[in-house]
Design a protein that fits this description.
217 residues; 5 strands; 5-stranded mixed sheet; Ubiquitin-like (UB roll); globular
Length: 217
């Protein structure tokens, strides 16, 4: 089986063995670090957004979400899809097509994350990819780590979400972390009543200061 190139490997979904997870030992020192102006970041994001709306891209994205794929295979497939689909736009924006290019592009966009125009388009790109807000391009404001513990078997998963996230946003982050989009509908954030029963909490409820939550499903 053909191994994905360095650029494709670096394009894996962040937090799931993607660009950050490659670690500095897998990178040669970059000779040039590309930066973007606000206008350039918006132009690049708009080009990426348009690619994500193409029918062929949507079909490929839907195919890699097949329930018979494991989480690792889904991450590999997403890396290949983004690597193949986005590399020409990154090249045109001055990024190298190697293990440095994708992480540098993410960092260059994140540098302007507080710009309203960049924020809007980057959120739309993430939505089209099925990622929670901020998963690729960061968020306006602080990220916090939340521990999700399964109510029945006690398994725990940690996700990073915006401090102002809703419980629906937390579920979406969990689904993206595990590579299982169906979890958005199949799991619930719950609390345990005094009688020991599990009670689902409303999607619109905010995380507030909680850093651990109980889930079922």
């Amino acid at each position: 089986r053909r191994r994905p190139g360095a650029f494709s490997r670096a394009a894996a979904a962040p937090g799931d063995g993607g660009a950050e997870a490659l670690g500095p030992r897998s990178w040669r020192p970059a000779k040039f670090v590309r930066k973007l102006s606000v206008a350039e970041a918006k132009e690049l994001l708009e080009a990426l957004r348009q690619i994500c709306t193409h029918q062929s891209f949507r079909r490929a994205l839907e195919a890699l979400r097949s329930p018979d794929r494991g989480a690792f295979r889904k991450r590999e497939a997403m890396a290949r899809l983004l690597g193949n689909s986005w590399k020409e736009q990154l090249r045109q924006s001055g990024f190298s097509i190697d293990e440095h290019g994708f992480p540098q592009m993410l960092a260059a966009v994140r540098a302007h994350r507080d710009s309203a125009g960049v924020d809007i388009v980057s959120r739309e790109v993430e939505r089209l990819l099925g990622f929670p807000p901020g998963a690729l391009f960061g968020v306006r404001g602080k990220l916090v780590e939340v521990t999700l513990r399964h109510a029945m078997d006690g398994d725990e998963v940690r996700v990073a979400v915006p401090e102002a996230a809703s419980l629906l946003g937390v579920r979406r982050a969990l689904a993206a972390k595990l590579g299982k989009p169906e979890l958005v509908e199949e799991c619930a954030v719950v609390n345990r009543t005094a009688a020991g029963a599990l009670q689902a909490l409303p999607d619109e409820e905010l995380l507030n200061n909680r850093r651990s939550l109980l889930v079922s499903g």
